[in-house]
Please model this.
Amino acid sequence: ATERVCAPAAMSLAGDNTTSNMAAAGGSNAITEPLLQLCIVRGTKEVQLSIAPTQTVADLKWRIQREAFKVPFKRQRLTLADGAPAAAHQQQPGGKPPKPVVVGPNHVALGRVAGLRSGSRVAVKDLGPQMDYRAVFLAEYAGPLAIVPIVALVRPWVYGPALTAAHPLVLAQIVGLLCWVLHYTKRLLESVFLHSFSHSTMPLFNLAKNCTYYWGAAVMVGYFLMHPLYTAPPSWCLALGAPLWVLFEATNFLCHQHLASLRRRPIPGLSATEAAHAHPVPTMGLFRWVVCPNYTAEILGWAAFNLMTSTLAGMLFMVAGAAQMYQWAQGKRRRYLDE
Model:
């Protein structure tokens, strides 16, 4: 493969005019697909790479790491610097500038990337240190799973032995602790055995940000929920909240199971790997009426938890989570409409 400073567009596009190459050996008339001549851009530097359209975005990233800018594979974000489809350059809602067209996902053949052709300019961005996507989920959920039970176990050292001895845990505190542990155990098991992720990594900074959010919330909720001077809500709150919590947790799990099953189904025209990374629009059950019923059930589950436990920290955690899930749901709705 050749590597050189990018030629002018007219020269780069010459590959598009080549419809076949005659095999040299044995006078064979075998026809091979023309190579894509791509101009790889980073800052002011440009390198031209030739690559077959049957190779994947991942193959191109490995080539860029080895032959062009030495940016590690997992840290690369590729976008089209020009030649993107017109629809992708339409102005975003709110008058925002158009988003760059991402070259991906990694498993897609280059010949199937919309807007990518011989002569295209592909910009490389170094995303910085990355961490495995699943590992981030495990870390952010393992913290809350451990923190609140630890607070319960060390109550005499946190609140003082005399105060703790005078005020043992009441039923609402025990049920709240049990629901908290079951919720994050469910999240961990789903992350390991159920969820699949469109991206293999995320910025390392997200690990610190997400863990700060989840672990900090666990410290606050645990501190006030396990406090010896905790005031339990009326008994009817526990009687109503507990079955509602079970219902919404089960609904959330069934939604996650349905989403995971969509990625295991064969999709005509796509390989098994491509189908596993596709985003088919879910239509079963609650998905017919709500874009993300898994988020709806998650929020209602925390509402039931707060009905049972009645702590300000828990309510603030629910509101913050609901605001974030609303933003995620809006993004998914736009993606469903685009697809």
Notes: The first strand starts at residue 3 and ends at 4. The radius of gyration is 26 Å. The first helix runs from residue 9 to 12. Strands lie at 3-4, 36-42, 45-51, 76-80, 121-126, 130-132, 201-203.
